[in-house]
């Protein structure tokens, strides 16, 4: 059984093909989907879609890259929102040091407030971190956050990986490792303990090697699993079972409402 631990299956690009794509995923053994919200508006949309697809799990939060339209009052509703159906985490939250993102101090304020909500609810978090691992660690420390979660699309060093693992996080591994030129990411992946990572696509983003320019979908998960198995010289079955166990450890509410 495969799980996509990070996909934006709620995005509009999937509107015309969502039912069909879900059916194909189930046919291919992709049986669970963690869908993190990105903006306040998207919380409602995800609320509705989660009713339709029992295989989905939700996370609610304000994504750091989309804070231009966000307000701190929206964070006040986060706790209540997380009482909705099949919520397993707060996310996607974090820090994005891309030049076009909003001021980093504004981002840190949003991030820490959302971490505090997650801490009070004892929920893990889905962290988006672009060029910001040290600042993310600083915020986690300042909030005293101990619930763990996932560092989505991790592409840091082994030392940075260790720091997050020590705090109870796992690392999200996706399409990046399918590119032969991703030497550093592949080296880090092969050095990690098998308890250290879970599989994700970040659909519709992060297309696999050979599929550049196309929308990514959760159907990529078996290919990512195969690629990870090859890099680590393990069986794909072993990768699939271990990453599922890791997911259940980090997101303990996953099976609270059974499929
Ligand atoms: Zn994402």
From TrEMBL:
Binding, a divalent metal cation 1: 6, 8, 92, 202
UniProt-listed Gene3D superfamilies: Metal-dependent hydrolases
Chain positions recorded as a divalent metal cation 2 binding sites: 128, 152
InterPro entries registered for this protein in UniProt: DNase_TatD-rel_CS, Metal_Hydrolase, TatD-like
TM ranges: none
KW Metal-binding (keyword) present: yes
UniProt keyword terms in alphabetical order: Hydrolase, Metal-binding
GO cellular component, one term: cytosol
One Gene Ontology molecular-function label: metal ion binding
SUPFAM superfamilies: Metallo-dependent hydrolases (SSF51556)
PANTHER family for this protein: D-AMINOACYL-TRNA DEACYLASE, HYDROLASE
Similarity section: Belongs to the metallo-dependent hydrolases superfamily. TatD-type hydrolase family.
Protein name: TatD family hydrolase
Species of provenance: Marinomonas primoryensis
């Amino acid at each position: 059984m495969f799980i996509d631990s990070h996909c934006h299956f709620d995005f509009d690009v999937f509107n015309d093909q969502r039912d069909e794509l879900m059916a194909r995923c189930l046919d291919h053994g992709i049986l669970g989907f963690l869908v993190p919200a990105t903006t306040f508006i998207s919380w409602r949309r995800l609320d509705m879609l989660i009713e339709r697809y029992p295989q989905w799990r939700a996370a609610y939060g304000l994504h750091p890259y989309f804070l231009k339209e966000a307000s701190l009052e929206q964070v006040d509703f986060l706790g209540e929102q997380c009482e909705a159906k099949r919520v397993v985490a707060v996310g996607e939250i974090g820090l994005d040091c891309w030049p076009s993102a909003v001021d980093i101090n504004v981002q840190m304020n949003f991030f820490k407030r959302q971490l505090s909500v997650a801490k009070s609810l004892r929920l893990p978090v889905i962290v988006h971190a672009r060029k910001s691992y040290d600042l993310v660690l600083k915020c986690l420390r300042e909030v005293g956050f101990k619930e763990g979660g996932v560092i989505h699309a991790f592409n840091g060093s082994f030392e940075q990986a260790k720091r997050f693992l020590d705090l109870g996080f796992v690392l999200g591994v996706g399409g990046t490792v399918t590119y032969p030129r991703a030497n550093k990411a592949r080296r880090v992946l092969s050095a990690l303990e098998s308890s250290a990572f879970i599989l994700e696509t970040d659909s519709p983003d992060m297309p696999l090697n050979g599929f550049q320019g196309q929308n990514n979908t959760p159907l990529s998960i078996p290919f990512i699993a195969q690629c990870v198995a090859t890099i680590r010289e393990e069986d794909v079955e072993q990768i699939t079972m271990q990453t599922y166990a890791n997911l259940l450890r980090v997101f303990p509410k996953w099976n609270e409402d059974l499929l």
